[in-house]
Fold this sequence. Notes:
Layout (H helix, E strand, L loop, with lengths): L2 H4 L21 H24 L4 H47 L1 H14 L4 H11 L3 H13 L9 H24 L6 H18 L7 H30 L1
Amino acid sequence: MTTLEAEPAQHPRIPAADHHRDVNGGWLRPAVFGAVDGLVSNFALMTGVVGGAASNGTVILTGLAGLAAGACSMAAGEYTSVASQRELVQAEIEAERLELRRNPHGELAELAQLYVSRGVEPELAHEVARQLSRDPELALEIHAREELGVDPHDLPSPLVAAASSFLCFALGALLPLLPYLLGATTLLPALLLAALGLFACGAVVARVTARSWWYSGVRQLALGGVAAGVTYLLGWLIGGHIG
Length: 243
């Protein structure tokens, strides 16, 4: 017996999750987008007030109000959205559970047909479906994954979503406000800090996209700059008339 026959060639195993980009973004996408939302909205709000020739105290008050209102709004919206989605999914899972109890043979045939449609031979598909269906909870999990595209044991938490949205938005909104809280009397320090934050957030977003970090950074910087420029112009045009 040759060495090759005795010891088959070993090839390094690459985990399935290691050679693909994270297309869902995981926690990174909502966290970064929440921070960007807070940064852009609060910086634009503050520049609008500065454009209207408001005092530093008014700018700080506006920034704090924008931070608090925006973070609470984001948290409430995220909680409602995730809770509603979770309730809908749970209702569909319960409907599937009831159907498995009422019509187990029909659900078994449905699962088998699903495997057949994916290229498995009919007899093998039926046997696989039969064995998987022996455990009601496993059968429910498989049907939920295949028909609803969800994992019954890994549904998103509304509280976690709300808390993370609140914190990320607040951190982003705090960035342009920080120079004023530390004693700045002009918009320039806030402008520089906001620009760095926008570019950094855009660069981080590149981790879940196919773009380069500098392209994503410049794009985010440009979008944030347009928003701030528009509100500054509105503040400048309107501030003189209501002052």
